[in-house]
């Protein structure tokens, strides 16, 4: 016990300090880009400089008073910047600050063990905020440096281990643990996260990046034409529908205040949507991986029904009477859901017991402004046309000269914004045309509503994969027909068919004259495509590997219908125990102790000496001669080991009657020299 206590109180080796410093820097780098505020970065910079100065013996370790002042300052800063910091983000920031202080004050081997444990927790805390494939790869590098530092703590009292040897041993340990890590990932049961939602302050920012919120006014979607914010991946079971059918529904807006459209409580009615299937042609299943939006809305192909086989979807996804779906809480991490696309259905109304709903009065409301547009509607109604004919006339009106689909429609500041668009600027993005269309339909006594979501996306037909980004945000209109139900009408198609047929990227190229792509842009596009493919595969196979996926995989591999959580835990613990047992056996090599042959081990030692120093010593060389041949290459400490080996062998071989050297002594002395020579071979 005394010896262990003495070792734990020894100073950290310079090699361990170096690896701990590298691990500290690598742990902090991704966190500065993910969640740490800038003032914490300043603290870390101070801690790093302080540690370097201690390493150079230019400054002393911080005393208790200094540490107390620093902790108090950190708490004050957290209170000022975060308010109530007793949450996941605030506590993580505080823990990271403590990690920095421990990094500065670590002096002894005991401190090194504590610092290593804190470093492992600090590395893990990053995954509370980010879990990408790139962070995982970076974390493996950081973990390797931490393992190297902790291995360095074990070398006190033995031969000096170079930085190269420490790193190589860490890599070997990591390599040995990877198979167990992969098996445990498959076997260990999945538990739901109990952490509260984070990043709630980013909700408005995400609405600005995704273009989907419960309020739409002129220009709210047009500014997203160049947004590369990732929204979703959708993988289809058989084939991808035509681009003009890729309407991703997210929200329905039914109230117009004279300038903006909003979603009212009347549209937030929890009810299964009612539809009539015309035919089954083109129906297929698809799976969506949806990125964090910090909102509840989802995006589904118009029209879809959620799969009911998944208990997760049944408990967490709710449907509304207007054919949209929401998650039961703001989406703070990537989620996966599956649905079936129904291309040939009739969207019906539903009697839900709310006054004036079935007669569509709520979808006839409009503001009493925009007099020029109202007069235009009255002209179109002069011969009392049918609903279909009026819609045709409206779309024909948008096809006349002057109306343009543009990425820069300008700002409509007048009170009569629709009049300004229809008769003055005639420049608009999808929301301008959708807003004017819905207003004119309601003036014509045709119930209508605006649907916002996304249109199209980047299509990869080889993989049946569609990628949707913020720039694909789109708005269109639905109007009610007593015979046909809700009918989609997209005025954008009348003004700019290319937006529907070719997609937003091709349209931007046409409108900006940038269809000629440079070599650099092609390389950048290829790199971006590779990155997206990695992200998709990582999300699908790793992040979305939850309990249902686990049960499906186990059933496929072992033909087992269901495995309980308790059974999975027992299997996992058994695997860990077996792995540790095997590693202990490999490390201690008990078979060498059972079948130890002095002659073979001595010949092996001579071979290692020849290889390490380029010698040509014969196997029959005497122990004393071997010792003298190695003296000039060794440090004083290593010379003692070689001399001890020679003396023990001489005693055991030539003076066996003295009983001063046992076989155990021979083993330890020879193994010590063999270990020394192996290290020299590694350093060569």
From TrEMBL:
It comes from the Bacteria. Signal peptide: none annotated. Residues 422-493 form the Transglutaminase-like domain. The chain crosses the membrane at residues 12-29, 35-52, 64-80, 86-104, 111-129, 135-153, 165-188, 562-588. The keyword Membrane applies. SMART domains: TGc. Keywords: Membrane, Transmembrane, Transmembrane helix. Coiled coil: none annotated. This is Protein-glutamine gamma-glutamyltransferase TgpA. It comes from Wohlfahrtiimonas larvae.
């Amino acid at each position: 016990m005394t010896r262990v206590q003495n070792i734990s109180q020894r100073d950290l080796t310079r090699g361990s300090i170096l690896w701990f410093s590298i691990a500290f820097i690598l742990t902090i780098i991704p966190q500065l880009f993910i969640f740490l505020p800038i003032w914490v970065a300043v603290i870390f910079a101070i801690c790093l400089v302080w540690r370097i100065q201690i390493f150079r013996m230019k400054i002393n370790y911080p005393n208790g008073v200094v540490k107390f002042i620093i902790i108090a300052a950190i708490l004050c800063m957290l209170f000022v910047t975060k308010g109530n910091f007793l949450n996941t983000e605030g506590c993580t920031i505080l823990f990271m600050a403590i990690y920095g202080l421990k990094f500065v004050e670590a002096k002894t081997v005991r401190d090194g063990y504590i610092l290593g444990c804190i470093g492992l927790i600090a590395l893990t805390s990053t995954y509370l905020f980010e879990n990408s494939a790139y962070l995982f790869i970076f974390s493996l590098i950081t973990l390797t440096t931490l393992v190297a530092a902790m291995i360095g703590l074990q070398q006190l009292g033995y031969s000096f281990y170079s930085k190269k040897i420490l790193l190589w041993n860490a890599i070997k340990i990591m390599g040995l643990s990877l198979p167990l890590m992969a098996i445990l990932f498959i076997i260990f049961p999945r538990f739901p996260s109990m952490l509260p939602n984070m990043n709630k302050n980013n909700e408005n920012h995400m609405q600005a990046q995704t273009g989907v919120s419960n309020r739409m006014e002129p220009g709210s979607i047009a500014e997203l034409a160049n947004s590369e914010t990732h929204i979703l991946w959708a993988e289809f079971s058989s084939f991808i529908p035509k681009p003009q059918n890729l309407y991703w529904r997210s929200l329905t807006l039914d109230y117009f205040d004279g300038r903006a459209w909003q979603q009212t409580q009347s549209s937030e009615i929890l009810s299964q949507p009612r539809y009539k299937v015309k035919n089954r042609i083109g129906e297929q299943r698809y799976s969506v991986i949806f990125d964090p939006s910090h909102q509840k809305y989802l995006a589904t192909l118009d029209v879809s029904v959620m799969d009911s086989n998944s208990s997760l979807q049944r408990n967490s996804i709710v449907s509304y009477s207007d054919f949209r779906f929401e998650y039961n809480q703001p989406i703070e991490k990537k989620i996966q859901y599956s649905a079936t696309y129904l291309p040939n259905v009739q969207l019906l109304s539903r009697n839900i017991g709310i006054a004036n709903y079935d007669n569509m009065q709520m979808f006839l409301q409009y503001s009493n402004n925009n007099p020029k547009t109202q007069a235009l509607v009255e002209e179109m109604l002069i011969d009392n046309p049918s609903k279909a004919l009026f819609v045709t006339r409206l779309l024909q009106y948008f096809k006349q000269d002057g109306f343009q689909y543009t990425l820069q429609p300008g700002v409509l500041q007048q009170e009569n914004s629709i009049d300004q668009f229809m008769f003055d600027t005639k420049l608009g993005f999808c929301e301008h045309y959708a807003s004017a269309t819905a207003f004119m339909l309601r003036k014509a006594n045709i119930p209508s509503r605006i649907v916002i979501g996304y249109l199209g996306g980047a299509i990869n037909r080889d993989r049946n994969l569609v990628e949707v980004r913020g720039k694909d945000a789109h708005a269109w209109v639905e109007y009610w027909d007593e015979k046909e139900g809700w009918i989609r009408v997209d005025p954008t198609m009348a003004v700019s068919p290319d937006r529907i047929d070719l997609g937003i990227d091709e349209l931007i190229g046409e409108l900006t004259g940038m269809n000629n792509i440079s070599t650099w842009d092609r390389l950048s596009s290829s790199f971006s495509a590779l990155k997206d493919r990695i992200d998709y595969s990582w999300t699908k196979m790793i992040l979305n590997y939850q309990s249902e996926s686990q049960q499906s995989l186990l059933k496929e591999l072992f033909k087992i219908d269901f495995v309980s959580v308790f059974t999975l835990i027992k299997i996992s613990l058994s695997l860990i125990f077996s792995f540790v047992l095997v590693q202990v056996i490999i490390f201690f090599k008990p078979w060498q102790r059972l079948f130890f042959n002095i002659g073979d081990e001595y010949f092996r030692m001579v071979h290692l000496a020849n290889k390490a120093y380029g010698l040509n010593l014969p196997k029959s060389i005497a122990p004393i001669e071997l010792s003298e041949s190695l003296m000039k290459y060794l440090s004083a400490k290593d010379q003692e080991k070689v001399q001890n080996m020679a003396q023990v062998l001489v005693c055991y071989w030539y003076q066996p009657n003295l009983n001063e050297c046992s076989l155990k002594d021979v083993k330890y002395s020879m193994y010590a020299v063999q270990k020394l020579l192996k290290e020299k071979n590694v350093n060569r």
